[in-house]
């Protein structure tokens, strides 16, 4: 397991007050440790990244309860382990079907997209790319990765209400930018 760098008492005190810079310092010092703990439980680097992020968000939320005289490493490792176990349980509940088990169902074969469909896809992608980074990440996590508002909030370290308002603004903007795709073509 990686040996974390020590963090001074002033940084710990600032962390307890919720100082963002102190959280960054704590992450710099203990991020590898937390990731290693999460990876040992999950055996998946992507899920370990998610657990690491959630660990520091949860630690930040509980910072006021942390005892300044203690080493943060065991506390963070415990949080990381619990979050990794929760993520593991979530992943086990998700149904997974191997492509080999699906068989040769003709319904899975689709015709290649038409030039019109490709143009529409390009229009949607361009509109998403033009969103603010905050709104774009919410749309991508929600629609491309299938996360719930709660999962997005945890992943981004923001309140659920913030995710909902960003989602609302993004969808309103996308509807305006893509309205031309819903308008019927004029027959000539």
Structure, explained:
With 188 residues, this protein is mainly α. It folds into 2 domains: 9-93, RNA polymerase sigma factor, region 2, helix turn helix motif (Rna Polymerase Sigma Factor, Chain: A, Orthogonal Bundle), CATH 1.10.1740.10; 113-182, Arc Repressor Mutant, subunit A. The protein is built from 10 helices and no strands. The chain has helices at residues 9-16, 20-42, 45-61, 72-93, 99-102, 115-129, 133-144, 149-156, 160-177, 179-182. α1 packs across α2, α2 packs across α3 and α8 (149-156) crosses α9. The protein is globular, with a radius of gyration of 22 Å. The mean pLDDT is 85.
Count the strands? 0
The amount of beta strand, in percent, is under 5%
CATH C-level class of the largest domain: Mainly Alpha
Q: What is the general shape? A: globular
CATH topology of the largest domain: Rna Polymerase Sigma Factor, Chain: A
The CATH architecture of the largest domain is: Orthogonal Bundle
Order of helices and strands: HHHHHHHHHH
Instruction: Indicate how many domains the architecture comprises.
Output: 2
Give the helix tally: 10
Mean pLDDT: 85
Poorly predicted ranges: none
Structural Rg:
22 Å
Instruction: Sketch the major β-sheet.
Output: none
Helix content estimate: 55-70%
């Amino acid at each position: 397991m990686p040996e974390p760098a020590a963090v001074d008492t002033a940084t710990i005190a600032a962390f307890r007050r919720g100082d963002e810079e102190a959280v960054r310092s704590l992450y710099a010092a203990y991020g590898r440790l937390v990731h290693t703990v999460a990876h040992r439980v999950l055996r998946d680097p992507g899920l370990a990244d998610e657990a690491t992020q959630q660990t520091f968000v949860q630690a930040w939320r509980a910072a006021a309860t942390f005892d300044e005289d203690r080493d943060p490493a065991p506390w963070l490792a415990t949080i990381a382990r619990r979050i990794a176990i929760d993520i593991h349980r979530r992943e086990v509940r998700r149904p997974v079907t191997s492509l080999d088990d699906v068989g040769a169902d003709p319904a899975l074969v689709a015709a290649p997209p038409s030039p019109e469909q490709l143009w529409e896809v390009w229009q949607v992608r361009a509109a998403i790319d033009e969103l603010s980074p905050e709104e774009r990440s919410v749309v991508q996590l929600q629609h491309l990765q299938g996360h719930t508002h709660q999962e997005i909030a945890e992943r981004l370290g923001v309140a659920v209400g913030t995710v909902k308002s960003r989602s609302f603004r993004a969808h309103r903007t996308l509807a305006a930018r893509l309205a031309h795709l819903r308008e019927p073509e004029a027959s000539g």
